[in-house]
Structures are given as C-alpha cells and as structure tokens.
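agent> Task received from the user: take the single chain below, predict its 3D structure, and emit structure tokens. No templates, no multimer pairing.
agent> Plan: (1) validate residues, (2) run structure prediction, (3) serialize to tokens, (4) report one or two observations.
agent> Step 1 OK, no nonstandard residues flagged.
tool_call: predict_structure(input=
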Amino acid sequence: MHWDPPSRPAELAETRLIAAILDGAFAIHSSLPAERELAAQLGVTRPTLREALQRLARDGWVEIRHGRSTRVRDYWREGNLGVLSAIARHQENLPSTFVPNLLQVRVSLAPAYTRLAFERSLAQVAELLETMTGLPDTPEAFAGNDWRLHVQLSRLSENPVFTLILNGFGDLYEMMARRYFAAPQARAHSRSFYKRLRAAARRGDADRAEKVTRAVMQDSLKLWRLAAESEADHP
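)
tool_result: status=success, residues=235
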C-alpha cells in the first residue's frame, strides 16, 4: 500500500492560522487577507495555503467563499470536535472560561461512562481500581493516574465515542491536572473518590458508582474555580 507523505508545510500554516484566530489577530467574522498576501505572511506557497484553508474549513474555523475573501467563522458555534482538539493544543491562547467549561462537560460525561463500565466490564473495572491504592502524594502521580482511570473507564464502557472525546484533550488534561492536584485538598478528594468507587465495584453497584462520580466531578469543578480565584488574587 502506498501512503502519501505528510503535508508538513500545510500543517504549519494551519497551526499558525489557528493561533492567529485564537489570539484575535483574525477575529471572528472578519475576512482573511487576500490569498497572495496571506501566503507571503505565512511563508508558504499559495497551493499550500489553499490546502491549509481547506483543513480549517472542514473543522469550522473558516468559510471559503469563492470570488470573495475567506471569512473567519464563529468557531464556538459553528465548529466541531476538531476545533476543540486544536484549542486544547494551543494552551497559550485558551480563554479563561475554557477549562471550567470543559470540566462542566466532564460532569455530564464521566458519570455516564462510569456507569456503563460498571455494567459492561465490572471485573476489569474492579481490577483497575485496585491499582489506584497507595498513590504517591504528588501532583504528577495523581495527574497521570487520574487520566488513566478516566480513559480506561471510557474504554470499558464499550462506547468508543467517549474515548475519542477524551483523547482529544490529552495534552491539556495533563497541564490542567497538575495544576489541580498541586493542592493537597484536591489529592485527598480524589483519593476518597477512588476508595468509594472501589467499594461500589466490590458490590457491583453501578447506581452508586454513577452518583459518586457525578458528585465528585461537581466538587472538582468547584475546587478548580477556587484555585483559579486564589491564583488571580496571588499572581
């Protein structure tokens, strides 16, 4: 089988354009510069620029209008999961509301895939949770293990869409989790969560697992907001 080599210049142009959109250089609803000018700004050829714009149009960043200038779309309203994944990779351009909004989504998702995992793969869930005992009391240990827990629960739910959504935020999750778990209170909170999930697994209680997960995800959102407020008060 023949595989085409990756189009690195187009990927670079795409990355630069996304960064410019996110930092406001190309604002929502504004028009991009003419093709020749934009290609020169990016240091790429016009065919390469066209390929990058096609990629951006596919995910909802821009609207290519033949005979007219390319328009920056309202990607928050018109974008797809590709936009979310790209935003997660451009952490320096994240709006302050992004992480709380992401955690709010997790409040809805995590109880659902946890319940399904308990119902469909209880033995594997119980085995996974037993590995969560005796974690070193460090932000790095908790960040890594918490990510592994959620990804594995999503896989054990046997609904791959949950896993695809989580995988789109892997890099962002590590950054976010290390900040979150820097607080001893957050580590203690998650240690209690793992303990309660283990107890639910030993009883085979999917209802209890779902309720515990929802409560803990809601508490995690509150803890993140408190930490963010503290950082703002003591920069």
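agent> Step 4: summary for the user.
Residues 206-233 form the longest helix (28 residues).
agent> Done.
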